[in-house]
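Problem: given the chain below (268 residues), write out its structure.
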Amino acid sequence: MAKTVWGVIVVLVVLSLVATGCAAVPAEVPAPGGAQQDVTDLGGRKLIWAVDNAYPPFSFLDEEGNGIGFDYDLAEEVCKHANCTLEFKEFAWDGIFEAAQAGEFDINMGGCTVSVDRAKVVDFSDPFYEYGQVILVRADDTAITDEAALAAGSQKIGTQAGTTNEITAIEKFGEDRVTLFDTFEMPVVALLSGDVDAVVIDEVAAIGFMSEDPGKLKIAFSITGGEVLALFMPPGSEIQPAVDQALNEMWDDGTMQALIDKWFSRSQ
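Solution.
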């Protein structure tokens, strides 16, 4: 899916108003002695990068138990551009925003939907991907064909607690039909085992789980659109200018599009 420029611009304006009260972030800040310090160069600083290794295609484990995915590749590229080093640390989604506020890590996974409520408690990077939420079903399902069919039926719907997927599932299909799970992969495991009949999930995550179980899952239809993903950092993070500059440079040199094509393509 291509990056929608105007959608990103609107989100950036809203987040700027919420986070900074319209104040611009300077490209450089004064250093001791009157010199200027380039805030887009982190000077070799080590960043603790939070990952959730149960969330393909963002961060998951290969057959040898090594962490792979979009987040790992993105982190490496950000540090190439921003002059930093990495330490990956695993965190569960539940409690992730509280961990950010407590400064337990420097920057978090890429699969986070930007919202105004979240922007009040963490600092978001520039958004880098626009997507929609979808309904994921078993590959042999023929009953769930569109939103009207699912809304009129009695199928059980699974999704992860504490996410925008939970909000969408309850709004569209009713709380009594929705089963909540603690981690990203658990609703998909329940779908494969027949404990639920459909899962509300982000499109890119659906693609990731489909690649993990080829031929067993399919996207039935889309139910939302126009949402954007971004990295997030503890409030007041001093690394935000460097991260944003790195992301913009990655768009300019084609690195970002290459990562999106590698990890988010339905044909992978």
